């Protein structure tokens, strides 16, 4: 399938700092994060890959993570943001405001958040149909209960995921370009393909 034409958006600037794609499980953080990274020429880091084995074992067993489980993982994501000389895109649930504060402080510069928001039904359906992920659909409700939506937080855009994957990616790129600075190089095509 051919990539949708995103050229009208290509005239706007890209966001010049690192980007965290956040939301509960099933919101599409990886797919959107990878597309944003391709479009802006940034490296992508899968936040789930930074979980320690104990966290993965707990989630695989259907046991929700606690703050004590999450802080070391968030610290590792923060170190990746801090250590990168160039902007990067990271997928991370970033469920609580305190988690996002830590990530902002770690980044030490411009950091944008893309909050992928969706209805419980859509999120649950996505989780039930995906393969090869350690996070069971049974943990969605605990994530939704933990979530503190990033309302009125700086450099945060909200994207509704109750639409096609292509439309989610296009909306994300448009919102991020709106945070960009005039005169920056236009992003490359996101390679939306058949996502």
Task: Provide structural commentary.
Pathway: Carbohydrate acid metabolism. Pfam families: AAA_33 (PF13671). The N and C termini lie close together (10 Å). The protein has one domain: Rossmann fold (3-Layer(aba) Sandwich). The longest helix is centred in the middle third of the chain and has 17 residues, at 67-83. The protein is an alpha/beta fold and 195 residues long. It is built from seven helices and five strands; from the N terminus they run βαβααβαβααβα. The protein has a five-stranded parallel β-sheet. Helix 1 packs across helix 7 and helix 3 packs parallel to helix 4 (97-107). It has helices at 29-40, 53-60, 67-83, 97-107, 120-129, 140-146, 165-178, and strands at 18-22, 43-46, 88-91, 111-117, 156-160. It is globular, with a radius of gyration of 16 Å.
In short:
Belongs to the gluconokinase GntK/GntV family. The protein has about 200 residues and is α/β, with parallel strands linked by helices.
State the main characteristics.
alpha/beta; 5-stranded parallel sheet; 7 helices; ATP-binding; EC 2.7.1.12
**Largest β sheet strand count, sense and barrel closure:** 5 strands, parallel
Low-confidence stretches: 1-12, 181-195
The number of distinct structural domains comes to: 1
- Strand fraction equals 5-15%
Shape: globular
Reading side by side through the largest sheet, how are the strands ordered? 2-3-1-4-5
**Rg calculated over all Cα atoms:** 16 Å
**Overall average residue pLDDT:** 81
Order of helices and strands: EHEHHEHEHHEH
**What structural class do you assign from the helix and strand content?**
alpha/beta
State the CATH superfamily name.
Answer: P-loop containing nucleotide triphosphate hydrolases
